Amino acid sequence: MSGGVDSAVAAARIAEAGHDVTGVHLALSSNPQSYRTGARGCCTIEDARDARRAADVIGIPFYVWDMAERFHRDVVEDFVEEYAAGRTPNPCLRCNEKIKFAAVLDRALALGFDAVATGHHARLEGGVLRRSVDRGKDQSYVLGVLTREQLAHAMFPLGDSTKAEVRAEAARRGLAVADKPDSHDICFIADGDTRGFLAERLGAEPGPIIDALTGEVIGRHEGAYGFTVGQRKGLRLDRPASDGRPRYVLSIEPASNTVTVGPRQALEVTSITAERPVWNGPIAEPREPISCTVQLRAHGEVYGCRVQATGDTLHISLDSPATGVAPGQAAVLYDGDTVIGSATIGSAA
């Protein structure tokens, strides 16, 4: 129970359905004041209190589990290391994979529980992950990394409801979090300054910003880790590009500490290589190429594609060009609204 409206209603629903429910809030920081608070939080002291009050209203036991050390190692340190390597991680996805459905699930099963239920907006039908009926709030993408075994011990009670319906139900149940705003951004970066957070941990590493069309140095940066593919704002170029058009980050090369920028059309890619695939859908790993759709970032567009699996690598050919495809993000495959599997984007062209 994060302290938000979704997990509170999820707990209320499964308790009302007759399950033996225990509410658990995760303490993810040894110094909770360093994490986001209020409307933007999910794991602070304030959120723990909101979760406890919700559990009291529902009438279920409530505990706080200390996962700070594991969260720091598997999510925060991974986040920093990925940026240092020129990739763009999704910490919410990693938290689901490593914390909620690994560390928490392992402890829950050891204690005799059958499943971990969360307030994610997604559906589970016969162990198969599907999109929420509320497409605007669908979170199947950040759950797409879970294995079949993890999904077999998961419950997502909100998948058949819209967010508006969840809030209305919370109000009817007398849950004080009914109108609490959704959490946003990265919980462990209190001020929202990702570049500053990384600079504090990785130090200043000045390097050039190069125009892909001319090869000229048109700016300098204090660390290539402060950029992501597709980024337009915050480039701080010394002079405009020769054609006068906006520039976007095309690539990040940590070895040479170089950021390459270019026009928007240079961002377009139709071929993606992804690594470490997880096949968690209704079919096993396909031996032949398959046609499906792919989502390349949270709440991003969906593209028709053809996928060929070769061992630990996926080769994804898009039916139409995508832009802003960043290494380190997940490529989640769908058949309609059903998740087939996922992999981590390694490169795109």
TrEMBL record:
<dbReference type="GO" id="GO:0002143">
    <property type="term" value="P:tRNA wobble position uridine thiolation"/>
</dbReference>
<keyword id="KW-0963">Cytoplasm</keyword>
<dbReference type="GO" id="GO:0103016">
    <property type="term" value="F:tRNA-uridine 2-sulfurtransferase activity"/>
</dbReference>
<keyword id="KW-0067">ATP-binding</keyword>
<keyword id="KW-0820">tRNA-binding</keyword>
<comment type="similarity">
    <text>Belongs to the MnmA/TRMU family.</text>
</comment>
<keyword id="KW-0819">tRNA processing</keyword>
<feature type="site" description="Interaction with tRNA">
    <location>
        <position position="120"/>
    </location>
</feature>
<dbReference type="InterPro" id="IPR046884">
    <property type="entry name" value="MnmA-like_central"/>
</dbReference>
<feature type="binding site">
    <location>
        <position position="26"/>
    </location>
    <ligand>
        <name>ATP</name>
    </ligand>
</feature>
<dbReference type="InterPro" id="IPR014729">
    <property type="entry name" value="Rossmann-like_a/b/a_fold"/>
</dbReference>
<keyword id="KW-0547">Nucleotide-binding</keyword>
<feature type="active site" description="Cysteine persulfide intermediate">
    <location>
        <position position="187"/>
    </location>
</feature>
<keyword id="KW-1015">Disulfide bond</keyword>
<dbReference type="InterPro" id="IPR023382">
    <property type="entry name" value="MnmA-like_central_sf"/>
</dbReference>
<protein>
    <recommendedName>
        <fullName>tRNA-specific 2-thiouridylase MnmA</fullName>
        <ecNumber>2.8.1.13</ecNumber>
    </recommendedName>
</protein>
<feature type="region of interest" description="Interaction with tRNA">
    <location>
        <begin position="137"/>
        <end position="139"/>
    </location>
</feature>
<dbReference type="GO" id="GO:0000049">
    <property type="term" value="F:tRNA binding"/>
</dbReference>
<feature type="domain" description="tRNA-specific 2-thiouridylase MnmA-like central">
    <location>
        <begin position="196"/>
        <end position="262"/>
    </location>
</feature>
<dbReference type="GO" id="GO:0005737">
    <property type="term" value="C:cytoplasm"/>
</dbReference>
<keyword id="KW-0808">Transferase</keyword>
<dbReference type="InterPro" id="IPR046885">
    <property type="entry name" value="MnmA-like_C"/>
</dbReference>
<feature type="domain" description="tRNA-specific 2-thiouridylase MnmA-like C-terminal">
    <location>
        <begin position="270"/>
        <end position="345"/>
    </location>
</feature>
<dbReference type="Pfam" id="PF20259">
    <property type="entry name" value="tRNA_Me_trans_M"/>
</dbReference>
<keyword id="KW-0694">RNA-binding</keyword>
<feature type="site" description="Interaction with tRNA">
    <location>
        <position position="329"/>
    </location>
</feature>
<comment type="function">
    <text>Catalyzes the 2-thiolation of uridine at the wobble position (U34) of tRNA, leading to the formation of s(2)U34.</text>
</comment>
<feature type="binding site">
    <location>
        <position position="119"/>
    </location>
    <ligand>
        <name>ATP</name>
    </ligand>
</feature>
<dbReference type="GO" id="GO:0005524">
    <property type="term" value="F:ATP binding"/>
</dbReference>
<feature type="active site" description="Nucleophile">
    <location>
        <position position="95"/>
    </location>
</feature>
<dbReference type="InterPro" id="IPR004506">
    <property type="entry name" value="MnmA-like"/>
</dbReference>
<dbReference type="Pfam" id="PF03054">
    <property type="entry name" value="tRNA_Me_trans"/>
</dbReference>
<dbReference type="Pfam" id="PF20258">
    <property type="entry name" value="tRNA_Me_trans_C"/>
</dbReference>
